[in-house]
Amino acid sequence: MKFSLIADTLGYMENTTKRLELTQHLVDLFKITPSDIISKVIYLLQGKLRPDHEGVEIGIAEKIAIKALSKSSGISVKKIEDEYRDTGDFGQVASKILEQKTQTTFLSQNITVERVYDTLYKIAELKGARSQDMKMKYISSLLNDATPIEGGFIAKIITSNLRLGIADYTILDALAVAYTGSKENRPALEHAYNVCSDLGKVAKSVAENGLESLKDFQVTIFSPIRPMLAERVKSPQEAREKMGTEFVSEYKLDGERVQIHRQEEKIVLYSRSLENITNYYPDIVENIGKVLKPDEVILEAEVVAMNDDTGEFLPFQELMHRRRKYKIAQAVQEYPITVNFFDVLSMDKKSCLDLPYVQRRKLLEKNVIEDSFAKIMPMVFVKTDSEVEDSLENAINAGCEGIMLKQLNSPYRAGARASNWLKLKREYRNELGDSIDLVIVGAFYGRGRRTGRYGALLLSAYDDKSDTFPSICKVGTGFTDDSLDQFYQILSDKITIRKDPRIESGLEADVWFEPEVVIEIVASEITLSPIHKVAMDKIRKGSGLALRFPKFTGKIRFEKTSENATNIDEIVTLYNSQKRVVQDEK
Ligand code: ATP
């Protein structure tokens, strides 16, 4: 299949943000894609080679990509760098440079999807001292034969800049239309995706064997399951209204969510965003076999740092030490953890997703042997507002950030944020009702004591419909001297020459960053704002939403990608619920 078919589709898609049009372009592409390469097409469309949890990264430094472009075009590195500084978009630069080249040389042979994919795969596998040279050769050979449009997209993919707002659900819609004739069938595709977290695999199955084949998708060991998420509530009353007559309250511990897959000796751990994080927790790998009775099992747990002497839970921030590349062994010694199991997703090759909560809980209690390292999440049955209130009080006294309320008969709804699970936090009594997770997109230099560091950060929420990062506030409070130093260091790697086109803000920051680092913020209120762009025009024409008195809580959400940051719908819900409270009080 000609690669130009993908490049053309991506080109059309870049010119629209309308979901219907985006979907239609994909449908047209899928209809002409041979089914044996549909999974490759899906991965390339997302700028990947395999699903994220497999950890196959294209990872090419911009420097190498620039050299490769220079080699295949005969245009100097310096000139390409200047061009890049001006436009800030490596894809555009590559197209432009290749355009100049094609004016002087003959066009070469067509490049195919298979060739692009296989070459990129080879590059991802290259390791060792000489690998940089080899990577450069592979890329320049691809660019040699690419048209300017194709070259532009190859350049974006290799520098991980291919971001066209092709969200998972848009691809699922397009697959449903292309292969089953109707968007109505999307739930079947979604179900398959939720249990395997691999869009390429789902696409191949429906393309080759139709809708029926999706029923065969089962929970499988070492394929992470997309996690079930909770809705937030602000009060015990609200929780009870949503939950009905009897439900449970579990501790909501403040740590990292880990999906643990065990098959005899082999243990693999996945994060909330389904990355493989096994290397960060050698202590879990070593000890978990002893506490789990089944040989083959998939469980979920919250991993929390604790004080070895007092047994107290420590703040989430302490888990940061586990993110070091080196010295993990030292971190394991200095920052011990407990593993607190709260769900079981599969046992002895049988999925537990459709079992009601109470049965999954019983299985958990039967099959985990508690010790000082492994615990089962404390839980109580609750019925009334005051019982919910008491359980919240107890949880907070025990060092939790709140409680999780779960319906007794609810299945595990993989990939859904559903009202069968509610989260109620300490903050519900005052202000916004919950903290929110925002992406750092820019910074302003500090003055006085903060000279030489950043004095304030510009933060954005995530708009999952358009894949953009509209700003919502500037934050300068809640930082300690240590955290200011830490931010300066972490963010120094993320500085971009120009503002990433996905960032939308009426403010001009002193420095712009790749939108990658997510932090937690509390605020007193959400107000209308002409400067900030979240939910622009949604509530009032010409206004977006902004946070009033935002404050950094001290938590860097390193386990979250920027796409997991709080999204626009959640902010609008918070804004509306706050209006309700104000009216209720009147
Ligand atoms: P999201 O709801 O999108 O995960 P978040 O991480 O900001 O976003 P939180 O408010 O932290 O959401 O609440 C959900 C998280 O709480 C879970 O992802 C999990 O890491 C953690 N958690 C702690 N205790 C429990 C529990 N008993 N049951 C389920 N999750 C728990």
Automatic annotation (TrEMBL):
Single Gene Ontology MF annotation: ATP binding
Ranges for domain ATP-dependent DNA ligase family profile: 330-463
Record-listed E.C. numbers: 6.5.1.1
Binding site for ATP: E250, R257, R272, E302, F342, R417, K423
Top EC class for this record: ligase
Cofactor(s) named in the record: Mg(2+)
Protein name, UniProt field: DNA ligase
Record gene name: lig
